Amino acid sequence: MARADWSTPRYPGLIVKLVAVVAVLAAGFVYGRPALNKYLEKEDEGPTMHVQIEKVQKGMFLARIGERGDLEALEEVEIKSDVGGVVVELYVEDGQEVQEGDRLFRIDDEYIVQRLKASEAEYDVAQGNVEQSRINASLEMQRVQNGIEMGRKAHGLAEANLVSTIAYGDQQILQLEAVVRRLETDALDARTTEVERAALALTKARLHVTTTATSLTLAGSEANRSAQLLERKYVSNSQHETVLGSLEQAKAANEAALADETLAKLSQESAHRGLTQLAVDIADNRASLAKLKETTAAQQAEGRLQVAQRLAELQDQRASVDEQERRGEISVATSEKYMERSLSDLTRLRQELSWTVKTAPRAGTVTASMLEVGQAVQSGRSEWGGGGPVMKISDLSKLVARTYVNEIEIRKVELGARAEINVSAYRDRTYDGQVWKIAPTATMRDNIRSFEVEVLLSNASEELRPAMTADVDIIVIERDDVLQMPIAALIEKEVTAIYAQVPKASVGKLSVGARLDINYAGDDERRFPARVDRISEDERHFDEQVIHEVRVIVDDNPDDLQWGPTTPMTLAIEAGETLTDIMSDVRKERDPYAQRLVDDGPLPEDHALIVTEDIRLKVGERNEYSIEILEGLADGDRVRVPELSRKDLFMWDE
């Protein structure tokens, strides 16, 4: 299959256009020159008046941004070879439809097959080395395990002797501890309880003595009071005798309480003597227990020393075993790592063998195939200088026109905007589309910052192909009932504009259309009549104060006012207010005007009698033919297209 020719010009239509234009100009010069000479000889007849009158009217207003671009598939996959080598079979060609999984081309696999066989043999050897390492490690471990069995038995016997010694000593200690515990718990608790009970009985007896003594005191007081009342005959003898009886009972109760207190003291002394004797008995038994523990600890220390000696001997033997086991593990691990590396190489080569046949990752049409049988290609998976794409698979049912819009016009372009596309190969057809994507950042193209824009074709047909040249017209404005006039009728007249920085506190004294006189600060003799044209709503900061910028148009465009640095001026408003020291800039600008016909009737035969007046306009959007009128003209007004030089108009004879 022939390689795609990338040297083919991308703009054949443009070349054809240029050739046609040159041919037309040459023919016009050859065949039109006699008529031109004939016209120039008629100097005695004078110039002919040509007047063009246009009508201001409402209608559909379209504004376009026209750019040139290329067609591309919306969905396109670049195909790279997964392995390096020589192409031995090519299953597809440019323009062929493929389905997902279809074979595209095959790379010579002989070298990979030879490497695969060597890798398989190397892997088999690595597996054998792993098995042999495991067997050797197992035999060595069995040998050293037998060598330490005797050490384990000696250590076990020493531990058994120690356990026996500890058990016998602990039994003797437990028995004596039981005797001490019994004395410290049962007997001591009983003696302690007896002492506590005696103390409690003494406390109760003393409390009873206090209670009976208080009752005796109260009974004596009551008897004295009753005797006094009896002398005054406030109580009877029987009542007084009852009180005396209560006094005798209180005395008897107090004497009984004192006797009980004496008995309680004797009981408490007896309990304390029994508790003291029990403490002596407990101390004697504790001394015996301490002696027994000391003897038992010495016997157990001797047993533990024997165990430690046997354990040290066993650990010395195990140290050599652990070292041998570690060596065996290292040998096996080394063999396993080598086997894993061999398996990795084997798996990679098997994968590369499967990659020698490249299949289509998706359905589509093969485009831009650059392969030939016998051609050497690089792997696209290489980390260092990988090979580039060798073909593309494109979905030709969805095409986009890729173009670039400069940074000034890009603000007008919106996603979803309607577009019209013409391709150089089919000039008689116009394809519809819409803006599909706008690049977020600009790129430099021909020293102009431009943004990439993709327009999706909505009615793409089968004859369209990627890389075709396309003229893209993006409709940025599409409004109906717009007042407009031909852009040729627009006149730009020079005006003197003054941009005054009016403080926020004073801007309310001005209004659009208001008349005023302006003069430089300190020059009251030269005053210039003017009117307010525009008052900015935006607030700005100027000389540490908030200002609004006011545009003032000076009448008759005086030459005395010329551009210069910012300078203070005085604004004398017609209503009587005067604003002084207003910092202002003088600029010479061009404002839009139109020549409106004063008379609405039919045009006179003598076009020299047509009367017009210059009307200042406020204009909006414009396209290559018309301009939007916002203020100044009305629907139905007639305007005159300004005349250029009539000498260069061709007068063709019949």
Task: Present the secondary structure layout.
Layout: H1 12-40, E1 52-55, E2 57-73, E3 76-79, E4 85-90, E5 97-98, E6 103-107, H2 110-147, H3 149-231, H4 237-355, E7 357-359, E8 364-367, E9 376-377, E10 391-394, E11 399-406, E12 418-423, E13 426-438, E14 443-445, E15 448-457, E16 469-486, E17 491-503, E18 515-520, E19 528-535, E20 540-542, E21 545-554, E22 567-573, E23 578-597, E24 612-616, E25 618-622, E26 626-631, E27 638-641
Antiparallel strand pairs: 1-27, 2-11, 2-16, 3-10, 4-6, 4-9, 5-8, 6-7, 8-10, 11-15, 12-13, 12-16, 13-15, 14-15, 16-26, 17-21, 17-23, 18-19, 18-22, 19-21, 20-21, 22-23, 23-24, 23-27, 25-26
Description:
- The strands form 4 sheets. The chain has a 6-stranded antiparallel β-barrel with strand order 17-21-19-18-22-23. A 6-stranded antiparallel barrel has the order 2-11-15-13-12-16.
- It is flat.
- The chain is built from 4 helices and 27 strands.
- The protein is of the alpha+beta class.
- The chain folds into 3 domains: 61-105 and 366-481, Beta Barrel (Elongation Factor Tu (Ef-tu), domain 3); 149-352, Helix Hairpins; 491-616, Beta Barrel (Elongation Factor Tu (Ef-tu), domain 3), CATH 2.40.30.
- 41% of the residues lie in helices and 30% in strands.
- Helix 2 packs across helix 4 (237-355) and helix 3 (149-231) runs antiparallel to helix 4 (237-355).
In summary, what is this structure?
It contains four helices and 27 strands.
